[in-house]
Every structure is written in C-alpha cells, then in structure tokens.
Amino acid sequence: MLITPDALALYGETFEESETATVNELIASASSAITSAAGTGILADTSTVEVLGLNERLLNLPGTPVRRIDEILADGDLVDPRSYRVTANGAYRAQGWACGRNLPTLTITYFHGYDEIPRDIQTLCVSMVIAGLIASREGGWDLQNGRISSIGVDDYREAYATSGEGIEQVTPMDLPERTRRALRKRFGGAVAVVNSL
Length: 197
Fold this sequence. Notes:
Elements: H1 20-38, E1 45-52, E2 58-60, E3 66-74, E4 77-78, E5 85-87, E6 90-92, E7 105-112, H2 119-137, E8 148-152, E9 157-160, H3 177-187, E10 192-194
Antiparallel strand pairs: 1-7, 2-6, 2-10, 3-4, 3-7, 5-6, 8-9
Helix pairs in contact: 1-2, 1-3
C-alpha cells in the first residue's frame, strides 16, 4: 500500500467507520494502479532480473533508483564487480555486456527503490482514493464514457468529450496515459540497454 487511511485527513477528507472497508479497498486499488503503471515497485526492495547481454554499455534496470548491485551473472558466471559501475538507473560497463559474438544471459540481483513513498506519489494515490470515495457516496461507480465538455442553461443541454483524454478514464482508479508514461519513465519500469558500441 502506498498510503494508509490516515493520509486522507491530511487532505481534508474524513470518512465514517462504516466506510473503512471501502477506503482500504480503494487504497489497495489505487496503489495497484500506480505501481502497475510504474512497471515496478516504488519502495526499496531486492529484485533479480534476467536479460540478454548486448553490446550496449549502459544496462537500465527497473525500479530506479538503483542503490546497490549484489551480483551480475553472465551465463551463470560472476561478472567482476570492478568491471562495471552502478548508476542511479542501472549498471555501466565500458566494454558492453556482450562477450564477443556471444550474447550471454545476464542475471542481475540488485537493491532499488525509495525508503519512503515520494510525496507526489502519495498525493496521487490520495486523490484517487478521495475520488473513489466520493463516487461511492454518490450512489456507486458509474463508468465514465466521457466527460462533460460543456453545459448550457437555456434550453438545457450537455456535451460530452468523445475523443482524447476526455474519455480515457473509466473509473477514478484509472490513470491517464500521460501519467502512466511519466510513472514508467520515472521509476524505470523496463529493462533496457542503451549506447551501442
């Protein structure tokens, strides 16, 4: 969980004891949506990934910041830790990660992530939970197939957005595509190699 129920009070939202189960479920759902969009956990953790060793020098790892690399194995053999340098987003090796024409399978065990959830991520999670809580109080989830783009008063009329991000969100637990991209970019949700030799 990225936040606790107490975090809602910091943003001026209170809830009844009868809503505790709903709040906990919303927190779990919002946390899952954010973590899924990031492509990796945000809190500090040890992970092991396997990738193909290519001729690139910089091996980007998911779960930035990378804080420590415990070991890198190339086809089961330990890579000398003096032959690479740990960076905030992975490991740099001047001669690249391939062994000549051989492209080894690299197994990397490393420690990454934050000791505590960054404030902006907590705010995002809280705002999703509050939106979900308000929706549940107003009669439950209504799938949003578009947002009101204009309202008229005389001869009442409503217009709804029919394309773009105006219709992207289906529930308060859905993140817009630009937010998902930003989370994935920030937390390094994929293994990638860059800078070919």
